[in-house]
Amino acid sequence: MLLGQLERMSRESMMTEAEIARQLTAKILHLIQTQEKTKKEVMSKGSTGMEVILASLEVCGGRRVAVFVSKGGPAILLKLLISASKESPPSEELMLQLHSLLAKVGPKDRKFGVKARLTGALNVTVNLLKQNLLNSKLVLPCLQVLRVYSSNSVNAISLGKSGAVELMFKISSPPRPPPDCCPPHNVCSFLLFSCVETNARRAVDRGHVPLLLFAYQDWHRNDTRQRHMLIRKGLLASLRNITNIKCGRTAFIEADGMRVLYNTSNECLPVRTLDPLVNTSSLIMRKCFPKNRLPLPTIKSAFHYPLPHVPAGGPVAQIYSQMPGVDDVVDDSDEETEADMENDTENEEDEKDCRNDDIETDLSKLRPREIHSRPFEELRVYDKFFLELSEDFQVSGGVAPGPRPAPRGTGLEQELVRVLERVALEADSPLNGGGGGGGGVDEPPVNSTRHIHSPLLVGGIAAARRGGGGGSSAGGSDCGSEGPEEEGPLLEVPDTALLLPLHDPDLYVEMVKGTASVPRYSEVAYPDYFGHVAPTFREPLLERAYGVQRAKIFQDIERLIHPNDILDKVVYDLDIPSGPVIADDGESLKFNSQFESGNLRKAIHVRQHEYDLVLNSDINSNHYHQWFYFEVSGMRVGTDYRFNIINCEKSNSQFNYGMQVLMYSVQEAIGGKPRWVRTGEDICYYKNHFSRSSIATGGQKGKSYYTMTFTMNFSHKDDVCYFAYHYPYTYSTLKMHLSKLEDLRSPQIYWRQDVLCETLAGNSCPLLTITAMPEATTNDHLCPFKNRPVIFLSARVHPGETNASWVMKGTLEFLMGSSQLAHSLREAYIFKIVPMLNPDGVINGNHRCSLSGEDLNRQWQNPSHELHPTIYHTKSLLQYLAHIQRAPLVFCDYHGHSRKKNVFMYGCSVKETVWQSNISTSSCDLHEDLGYRTLPKILSQMASAFSMGSCSFVVERSKESTARVVVWREIGVQRSYTMESTLCGCDQGKYKGLQIGTRELEEMGAQFCLALLRLKRLTSPLGLRTQQHFLDVESDLMETRAKVTSPTTYVMEEDEPSFQEEVDYSADSNDDDPDPDVEASNEPEDAALHLDTLSDCETANHKK
């Protein structure tokens, strides 16, 4: 009776009676469970009970199935299956119905796999399938149930031992008409089997890899209407799982799998709907591409510098303790899992979860406190760097001549408008060079010329261009060496000094002569000699063409498919003692990197117009490959040259998101346009087949290098072009700029340049002091002069972050400018500036380290006087200021960021760190002055490139030895920041969609100064806030700028736009040594909302 009602309702499919149907199903199930008679009636051969139940589940679907599962239905069905299997012979009709029911209800039961294994149902299904291979009616539900079984990994292993893997191949092996004999369920079942390593090995041992390839090829050939995509996808996914293990990759290669998938993929390329097949095939081929070591004798740097002593532990000690020839070993282990290759974008959420583990949770370390680790008597030697605090100006009479102009009326308003809204820094200042000037159109070529010899040699010495296998123990330029006085051809070149007041080519050469380099460079790069006149035209982010990365990967795979096309000719090699430049027949390009800040270790001509380039490691290191700067010549016009930098290490790059390389053409410079321009097409960044040694990855195995590739079509025949990761800014350039700034200073400016210390190689580290001269020598003027707050700035601790130097250049030019705002800023503060913390690294083309082989921004907790002199003495300056109760109001370390857009800051906050770490604490522990947010907030209102949403104030364990955290924690500076500038471009504000240039970077440096000026007003007592007209104008301009800025300024926008194609690179982090690129970007919204409404009055209450 109950079955009759259920059958009638199922036939009518009346959804309004769903509740009645559920009740009937529950009653039938209860009767089956409790009454043996009812159970036999339902299962009898002539009964339609099973069909009725199956039909009712199919009609009403999910909710009825859920009720069936909740009442223990799957367990009953499994018992029925075991009982039915004991009959001889088993009822085919009953088995069909039971497996159909199990396929329906199994996926809804989380413990179905365990129940099936414990009842013995796995073997029943496998045996039934073995006995009915030709019965397609019964095979289909059995395969469906096997797929549900194998979703449990233990079941998958058990089924593999029972011969299920072989069954899958018997069913799917072509030819096997009709098509429904190889349904998607079969492939899905095998796919789940192959996910288990033991089954994957069993498939390899049984010789199933060639069968899978044959099956895929056959389905590819016959499925012309693309009706069986699921089967083809499943076969590829099974191959993908099998090739996760080493023996699977070997079997794939031996079965000629590379050629099979390469050919089938090329045939699929014209059909966009087949892209999933192409992408999976590409992933498998890349995974199976034989691993090679880099084409280098050693992954250590080509240059060597002996240290005064080797650290007791760490990477440097490990390098010195290694035996020769054991530093780079090909690792083809099974640890390179599918996750290493398959992720097409970095998962920001996963990354944030990982970062949470790094957040500092020890409240004792989160409370800033002044730590006087050195006695004051020892710090007294630093008195000489603070003469302005004791100088009375009586002897020299060096006071400002006369009162400054009163900041009144419309003149000041116009000046504020100019400074805040134009791109140029100061239109009426002699410091307004072409590098910072700008208009709407490109400037005319430089007309004035000078004559130089080519190549540019220090002291007229012939170009040695020798290798750096040994280098020099003490460094030093080669300008004093003896040799034949050979001069190259005389060139007429533009005199860029007319456009760049801070640039003097002759002065630059003199500065190079005093620069000590480990390779003893004797050449001067043309871009550094000519200078850079920033173009006024916009350079938008490069739009990525569809399929470009896939095309590049397929070209790489062709090296294995068509080995006869490979030239493999070395054309440049620093490891050759006789000289890196190798003579050839003129068919290859010529390369050079033997000049200050240059980095290119080896160039290999691999195919007709394709070159593999290998970057040099940082000195006394075996990794940090990112910065490059090299020269190319001998090119032909109209030819597409492909350049592959094959030993990149980071797992992602802005080259995947619109960033282009920089090129400087000497022909263009001679023609009057000396400038770096963004260039290159078909740019992408992806994992390659060169294996990273576990020695260089901190013990991690299975890691690979990454390739950054770009295509270049040169405009001039026999040009000399330079390529760089970012706008170069050498140590000699800094010395030249400082010399010119000192010459251009006015009497109102207090300027002093000291030598803070000497580096390991003997180069001087400059320390600048900039403020306004007192108007008189009376105490009324000298006392405010000496009590001005201190602003401490530093930059370029990481040599590869050249954008930090360009931002610093903008800051220095503004501070030394003649504008009223610059004068007001100098009157407000005393600036202590270390513009280049790592001169040795900059000079020798390092990316991250100094000559000690260590990241200097990880040495602030306990710097060594011998190995880290610049950090040791800079920290001592700050300790001295803390001892005399003059700790800086603001400390800011300028950096560059390679994987994010815009400009932003990292600061330190107890409250925001606690919020992010979710640790329990009392409210009194979270009491904190919010003044640390004021400066970033001001910058977000003033600077179009600045993003408040990207700022973070979380303190992490891995950053506890950085400048920002140490100065905050030990010196007690609340406003201690790292300011990060993008190497790519902006995705907000008026620069949205544009790549960043030197003009924007210098503008950022100037706007940082303006922000400090407003910070002075906000942190001053209300009674001292005069010049109301000034304040009203500034407030109006702030509101205008805030309206111009895109709303995304205050929104977290870290996720990059997705491409039309799959971007295939690993999301695993290669940053074994943490760096600013992977700083946490967690933004507590409550605090952000609070500070967004911060008024001037409120900010005054948060002053230090």
UniProtKB/TrEMBL annotation:
Bias (Gly residues): 466-478
Sequence segments annotated as region (Disordered): 327-361, 466-488, 1044-1104
PROSITE patterns (alphabetical): PEPTIDASE_M14
Residues annotated as transmembrane: none
Regions of compositional bias (Basic and acidic residues) in chain numbering: 352-361
UniProt keywords, alphabetically: Carboxypeptidase, Cytoplasm, Hydrolase, Metal-binding, Metalloprotease, Nucleus, Protease, Zinc
Main location: cytoplasm
Biased composition (Acidic residues): 328-351, 1052-1086
Catalysed reactions, semicolon-separated: C-terminal L-alpha-aminoacyl-L-glutamyl-L-glutamyl-[tubulin] + H2O = C-terminal L-alpha-aminoacyl-L-glutamyl-[tubulin] + L-glutamate; (L-glutamyl)(n+1)-gamma-L-glutamyl-L-glutamyl-[protein] + H2O = (L-glutamyl)(n)-gamma-L-glutamyl-L-glutamyl-[protein] + L-glutamate
Residue ranges of every copy of the Peptidase M14 domain listed in the record: 727-1016
EC number: 3.4.17.24
Keyword Cytoplasm: yes
Pfam entry (one): Peptidase_M14
Catalytic residues as annotated in Swiss-Prot or TrEMBL: 980 (proton donor/acceptor)
EC primary class: hydrolase
Gene Ontology CC annotations of this record: cytosol; nucleus
PANTHER family found in the cross-reference section: CYTOSOLIC CARBOXYPEPTIDASE, CYTOSOLIC CARBOXYPEPTIDASE 1
Family statement drawn from the similarity comment of this UniProt entry: Belongs to the peptidase M14 family.
Full protein name: Cytosolic carboxypeptidase 1
Naturally occurring in which organism (per UniProt): Gadus morhua (Atlantic cod)
